[in-house]
Give the backbone structure.
Amino acid sequence: MLNDDMEESVLQDSSCYQAADQESYFGDEGDSEKNSLAMVPVKATDAGCSVRTLHDREVTALKPGWPLLHRTISSSDRKVSERSLFRRISVVQWAMQLPSRNLSFHKDQFLGLDSKSGALVPVNAETGMVASPERKSTSVPKELEGLHEKYSSSCRLFNYQELVSATSNFLPGVYFDFLTMDFICPKVVFIFDMVYLPM
Amino acid sequence: MILISENLIGKGGSSQVYKGCLPDGKELAVKILKPSDDVLKEFVLEIEIITALHHKNIISLIGFCFEDDNLLLVYDFLSRGSLEQNLQGTQYGLHR
């Protein structure tokens, strides 16, 4: 059962990637959710991923479009090569590649997609963590320090907004299956604080 | 079964559990811990224990979230009825 579940979730993950590739639409939260894991992929492996994470050197090295035209035009006229870039990808994707206006980053920094703002933000190349200044400044309680690192192999760190939207703002009504009258109790709750729950 | 609303799937002394769905279709049970003196301790303890346990009857922890004062635990969603239903073998009982 457990294995089945795991397999299923793997399948869902890959289908999610496929969908993202086909639609070439950055707003797919299945992917942005992955980024919020603080595990932003730092190497571009295929067309789908390259949109999300680009080394800033690679941004300038990107030369899609018509190869023949490239040779004659792109070296002399950079604007033209940028325009052909626009044609290959959606406007949204193009916008995602633009560096943020108030962003200052070093040459060797990697860029990742911030799941909240949708902006390109510097990413720590070693940890894959979004190197956002606000995350550093928020004081994490002592008890929670290193929690994510400790369980990073089995647990992901969710973004609060992501869970708010996953549960429809913690509002009722959307998911209950009236046909089967099926409702759930995660069994773990009985271990902790919900032993009195069923009546 | 304490079923306050259709999306609120469980309620306990120190937490509430909601059903959620990620954009990729994966279903979740999101447990929100109520603020209390020991809430941080409980949060860490629950993560510690659940990640250490591997059993088909114990739902697995997918992840967690701590932002500002919000402490949330995210579990796999199991649509198998309540504990009572499982114990009695009446999985599709209609009592709510």
